[in-house]
Amino acid sequence: MKPMRSDAPELRGTPQEEPMDLDRLLSNTADGVCAINGDNRIVLWNRSAERILGHSAREVLGRPCCDVFVGRDPAGNRLCYKGCHVMTLVNRGEPVQHFDMATRTKAGKPVWLNISILVVPGARRELSTTVHLFRDVTAAHEIETLVRERLAQASRGTNDGNGPPVDLSRREIEILRLMAGGANTKALAEKLHISPATVRNHVQHILGKLGVHSRLEAAAYATRHGLL
Questions:
Q1: How do residues 148-188 score in pLDDT, each as one tens digit?
Q2: Angle at Cα 179 formed by Cα 153 and Cα 206, nearest 5°?
Q3: Residue 119 CA: distances (Å) to CA of 4, 32, 57, 83
Q4: Residue ranges covered by each domain of the chain
Q5: Structurally, what CATH architecture does the domain formed by 149-224 represent?
Q6: Predicted local confidence at residue 132, as pLDDT
Q7: Which phi and psi angles does 125 have, rounded to 5°?
Q8: At a CB cut-off of 8 Å and minimum separation 6, what does 227 contact?
Q9: Domain 10-140 identical in fold to domain 149-224
Q10: Fewer beta carbons within 10 Å, N or C terminal of the chain?
C-alpha cells in the first residue's frame, strides 16, 4: 500500500526540476521514514517503516508518534512521550544528533533503531514537518552485548570458581589432567617426554588462563568445569 500523507509540505528542487513532494522523495528510501506534524501526529509512514516495525501506514497515520514507537534508551529510560527531548530541541531550532532507541515491532519483537532527525520547514514553525529516518541496528547491538558479556566474564576471571571454561591447548589440557591425578613436575616430564622447565612453563600458562594460584586450585577448577 502506498503510504499516504495529510499535510506534509512540498519540497521543491532547482528551477529546472519538477517540484517533488515529501511522499515521492522518501517513499522508496531503504530507511524507515516517519514524518510528524506540529501536533506530533504521524503524517507519513513509508514502506520501509512498515517492513522494519510491522505497522502499516493505515494503522499509524494520525496517531501520536510516541504511541507507536514507545522508545527507550540503552539504560531503559523512556524516550518517547509528548513533548519529548527530541521535539524540544526541534522546537528550539537546535540540531539533533542521531541516536539509538529500543522499541518493539507490531508483533512484539524487540528491535533497536538508529534514528536521524530532519526538519522540513513550513510557512510557519507550527507547520514544519519533523522527519524521523530510522534503520534496524538490532544485530549490531546484540553483538555489542555479547562482547560486553564476554569481557565482563573475562574481567571476573575464574577466581570465584564460577567463570566459564577457558580455552586451553591440547597439551595444557593433558598436563592439567595429569596434575589432577597427582603427578608432580618430574612425573609430568617423564610421562610427556619433555623437560621439567617446559612442564613448569606449561603449568604457569595454565594457572594464568584459569585465574588460579596453585596446581590444587587448577585441578579443582578443571573438575568443576568438566575439563578432565
A1: 666 555 555 544 445 545 678 888 888 888 888 888 888 88
A2: 35
A3: 19, 16, 20, 16
A4: 10-140, 149-224
A5: Orthogonal Bundle (1.10)
A6: 94
A7: -55, -40
A8: 165, 168, 173, 176, 177, 221
A9: no
A10: N
Instruction: Name residue, grid cell 575439563.
Output: 227
> Which amino acid is located at 205 in the chain?
H
Could you give the angle at which helices 170-180 and 185-192 cross, rounded to 10 degrees? Answer: 130
Over 60: is that where the pLDDT of 214 sits?
Answer: yes
Helix (H) / strand (E) containing 32: strand 32-36
Q: Note the pLDDT of residue 105.
A: 96
pLDDT, tens digit (0-9, with 9 covering 90-100), for 80-93: 998 899 989 988 88
Nearest CA among 185, 182, 190, 187 for reference residue 228: 182
Q: 114 — phi, psi (to 5°)?
A: -100, 125
User: Environment class of residue 53 by beta-carbon count within 10 Å: exposed (0-12), middle (13-18) or buried (19+)?
Assistant: buried
C-alpha cell at 71: 522508545
Lookup: cell for 207 = 594457572
Options 3.90.870.10, 3.40.50.720, 3.30.450.20, 1.10.150.320; CATH for 10-140 is: 3.30.450.20
Overall average pLDDT of the 183-206 stretch: 89
Q: Which residue has the cell 506540529?
A: 38
Burial class, 113, CB count within 10 angstroms (exposed 0-12 / middle 13-18 / buried 19+): buried
pLDDT band at 126 (very low <50, low <70, confident <90, very high): low
Per DSSP, what are the bridge partners of residue 101? 113
